[in-house]
TrEMBL record:
WD repeats lie at residues 127-166. Keywords: Repeat, WD repeat. Residues 34-83 form the F-box domain. This is F-box/WD-40 repeat-containing protein At3g52030 isoform X3. It comes from Cicer arietinum (Chickpea).
C-alpha cells in the first residue's frame, strides 16, 4: 500500500520573505523633558522672587523647603533692604535687619489675615443639625461630624449640607469627645472608648481593658486613640488589641484638650493654663508652653508652624513651634 504524495503549490512571488529575525532600523526619537519652574536654579528663582511683594513671598515660602530656603538667602534679603530704603528714605533699615526675613514674612501674613478678617466678606452657611446645642465639631476630607449635644452623632457632606450618616450613642453613657477618619468614628463615652464603623457595626471597649480615670478629651490616629484624663496623664489605646499600651504624664492638673502634630507629637492643654508637648516614642516631654491664663486652656489648633490656643476667659494665644516661643495673644470673647 502506497501513501499518496502531498501536493505543493509553487510560490508566485519571486522575492523571498524577510526573516522575522531580520534587524529593523528605526530612528530613536530623543525624549525632551518638559521645563517647569522646579527646573530653575536658585539664582533664577531669586531674581523672580525679587519682583514679588511681601505677601506673595509669604505664599511662595509655603510651596516647598527649597523655595523657603531661597527666601532666606542673603542676596534676596539685601535686595529687600534696598527696596525698603528706597520706598522710605527717611527710615532706617535697623528694624528690618535685626529680624530674619522669615519672621518678617510671618508678621506680614498675620497682618494681612487680620485685615482680611476685619474688612473681607464671608459667605456663611448654616443649617439645623441637632435638637440641642452642639459642643463638638470635627472636619476632615470634606466631611463634618457633629455631636455631644444629644444622643446622636451626625456626619455631614460639605457639598450638599445634608446628613449622610448618623450613629446612636449607647444609653446612660454621656459622649465626651470624638474623632474620625474615612472608615470609622471613635468616641469617648464616659470612661470607655466606642467605635462606630462606617458599615454600621458598633463596638465598645470591655470595661476591664478600656476603663480609665475620667477622660475629658481624645484624639485618634489609626491605630491609636489618645485620651486626656483628669489625673494629668494621656493614655494611649491600641484600637485593634483594645488595650492601654502607654501612659504619658503630661501635667499636674486635669487635661482639657489634645491635638497631634504631623510627626506624631502629642500636645495637651490643661486647667493650669500650660501646654505640654510630648513624644510618645520616648514618653518624654519635649517642651512646655506657658500662658498667663490661670483659668486654663480650652482648645488647641496646630498649623504648619503655629500653635493656636483658646483659653477659658476668651484669650487667644499663638506660639511659634520652630522656636517654642509665644508670638502674641489677643482677647477675643468669653467662651
Amino acid at each position: 500500500m502506497t501513501k499518496p504524495l502531498s501536493t505543493f503549490t509553487a510560490a508566485t512571488n519571486n522575492t523571498p520573505p524577510t526573516p522575522a529575525t531580520a534587524p529593523t532600523y528605526q530612528t530613536n526619537k530623543r525624549r525632551q523633558t518638559p521645563t517647569t519652574i522646579l527646573s530653575l536654579d536658585a539664582d533664577i528663582l531669586c531674581t523672580i522672587f525679587a519682583f514679588l511683594n511681601m505677601f506673595d513671598l509669604v505664599r511662595c515660602s509655603l510651596v516647598c523647603k527649597f523655595w523657603n530656603a531661597i527666601l532666606e538667602s542673603r542676596s534676596l534679603r539685601e535686595f529687600y533692604e534696598k527696596k525698603l530704603l528706597k520706598n522710605s528714605p527717611t527710615s532706617s533699615s535697623f528694624e528690618f535687619t535685626k529680624k530674619s526675613l522669615r519672621v518678617t514674612l510671618g508678621e506680614v501674613a498675620m497682618n494681612q489675615n487680620r485685615l482680611a478678617l476685619q474688612c473681607g466678606r464671608f459667605h456663611v452657611d448654616q443649617w439645623r443639625g441637632h435638637s440641642t446645642a452642639v459642643s463638638q465639631c470635627r472636619m476632615k476630607m470634606g466631611t463634618v461630624v457633629t455631636g455631644v449635644g444629644d444622643k446622636v452623632i451626625r456626619l455631614w457632606s460639605l457639598d450638599s449640607y445634608k446628613c449622610v450618616e448618623e450613629y446612636l450613642i449607647p444609653d446612660v453613657l454621656p459622649l465626651v469627645d470624638f474623632d474620625f477618619d474615612e472608615s470609622k468614628i471613635v468616641g469617648l463615652i464616659g470612661s470607655r472608648l466606642c467605635i462606630w464603623r462606617r458599615n454600621g457595626k458598633r463596638s465598645v471597649f470591655p470595661s476591664l481593658e478600656g476603663k480609665f480615670i475620667k477622660g475629658s478629651c481624645m484624639r485618634y490616629s489609626d491605630p491609636e486613640a489618645m485620651v486626656g484624663c483628669d489625673d494629668g496623664a494621656v493614655r494611649v489605646f491600641d484600637m485593634y488589641s483594645r488595650r492601654c499600651t502607654q501612659i504619658i504624664r503630661m501635667h499636674d492638673a486635669p487635661i482639657t484638650c489634645l491635638c497631634l502634630s504631623e510627626d506624631q507629637l502629642i500636645l495637651s492643654g490643661s486647667t493650669s493654663g500650660s501646654v505640654t508637648i510630648s513624644d510618645p516614642s520616648s514618653a518624654q516631654k519635649v517642651a512646655t508652653l506657658r500662658s498667663s491664663d490661670v483659668r486654663g486652656i480650652r482648645t488647641l489648633c496646630l498649623g504648619s508652624q503655629l500653635l493656636f490656643a483658646g483659653s477659658a476667659v476668651g484669650y487667644t494665644y499663638c506660639w511659634d513651634m520652630s522656636q517654642m516661643r509665644l508670638m502674641r495673644y489677643n482677647h477675643s470673647h468669653r467662651y
